[in-house]
Amino acid sequence: MTFKIDDRTFETTLTTGTGTLALVGAQPGYQTFVAGVGDGNTTYYAITDGTDFEIGIGTVTDASTDTLSRDTVISSTNGDAKVNWGAGSKNVFVGLPLSRITSLVDPAQSSGIVARTAANTYAARTITGSSEISVANGDGVSDNPTISFPMSTVTQAVAEAGVATQRQIWTAQRVKQAIGALSLSLVRSARTSNTILTPSDNSTLIDITSGTFTQTFQAATTLTSGWFIYYRNAGTGVVTLDPNSAELIDGASTLIMYPGDVRLIQCTGSAFNTIRIEAGTIVGGVRSKQQQDTGNGTGSTKTNLRRFTTTRVTTGTAITYADSAADGATWTINEPGYYFMYYSDQVAADSDLTIAISRNVTANTGPTAIATVDRLGIMDTNATGIFVFYISAIEYLEKDDVLRAHITAGVPSVGILASFGIEKITHGS
């Protein structure tokens, strides 16, 4: 059922009493209620016999004799009740009551805003509110639709915690308190042993004043993305940063912080990254060093790569030495930093001998064929008699760099005088 009014809807009726009106046809130049309002729809109506009248709301029914029920009386000459019609013809037409002229809505609707439909009817539409918008749909007669935005004033605790919603009012005082809570002061937490790092350490300076230990972390998912700390090793020991389980820090399972090291450590939610703020100094007892001597020929496959028989020194974990019968000796860097390295060898007789140190060269390459960017040192001479060759270098090496000692293939040498040494002298970024 739809409420509808339409122009030029005018019929007559011979109905008597207070019942439903039987409609007997449209007046010339007008349309019937069924044609204008439609079967089953409601409308405003007016009835008059020239003396009495009745204005109300009725329902149209399409039948062999069309009818109009008198559902609600708005006004009449019978004290705003149904008129008890006598004999004779009465005029029945669609009219808009003056009392309803400001609404134009379906009287069955108690509130809303009028919307005209494609079928030329009028319907009430309401606005739906939300948690951020409050709506009161007026009835268009005694009150109007209103829209408001409920808001409360931010408290000091909420301002300083930074958890206010967009619907809260910020006074100048509360804004000042919020800015004060974001001051750039840095809280320092001095420690001498491992205390697991937790969310409460966020934006804190963790200051290690003494001790050698492993620093543990709660899971990165617990610390969450954006968590960060400043971490300083102000003592003389060595601190190993070891994230939770298999989580990585700067792509590695652990990270060593030497005395004087200062780093910004930031959590991504699944791993950790660091930025070196200040580099520390490696002190006695913590240096990593490898020293091999007594030549053992070259690799059987890679005949330009030297092998050694004896390991004289192996300390620390920053360097891993390995020897392959086929591929020669390698020194793998486990920690970034500056390294001192040397390689000495000796030709056994008058020969043209060249030696070199390479970085990340895997091919069986002669010393002079190594690209300049990959060659850390080279010595080339045509020796007369027994001659000792010696090269040395200080280089910054990255984690996973691999060094090799190259020698001219097939040149006889004095194995007992061959030696290679490498030592970490500062730690990396």
What does this structure look like?
With 429 residues, the chain is mainly beta. The protein folds into 4 domains: 10-100; 152-181, no CATH class; 187-278, Sandwich (Jelly Rolls), CATH 2.60.120; 289-427, Sandwich (Jelly Rolls). It is built from 4 helices and 31 strands. The strands form 8 sheets. A 6-stranded antiparallel β-barrel has the order 1-2-5-4-3-7. Strands 14-15-17-20-21 form a 5-stranded mixed beta sheet, with no helix packed on it. It has a 5-stranded antiparallel beta sheet with strand order 23-22-31-26-29, with no helix packed on it. Strand 24 and strand 25 (328-333) form a beta hairpin. It is elongated, with a radius of gyration of 48 Å.
Feature tags:
five-stranded mixed beta sheet; 42% strand; mainly beta; six-stranded antiparallel β-barrel; single chain; 429 residues; Jelly Rolls
CATH top-level class of the largest domain: Mainly Beta
Straight-line distance between termini: 79 Å
Total DSSP helices:
4
Reported for the largest beta sheet, the result is:
6 strands, antiparallel, barrel
Q: Give Rg in angstroms.
A: 48 Å
- The secondary structure category is mainly beta
Tally of domains: 4
The CATH architecture of the largest domain comes to Sandwich
Strand content: 35-45%
| Low-pLDDT stretches | none
CATH topology of the largest domain: Jelly Rolls
Strand order of the largest sheet: 1-2-5-4-3-7
Q: What is the general shape?
A: elongated
Q: Give the averaged pLDDT, no decimals.
A: 83
How many DSSP-defined strands?
Answer: 31
The portion of residues assigned to helices is under 10%
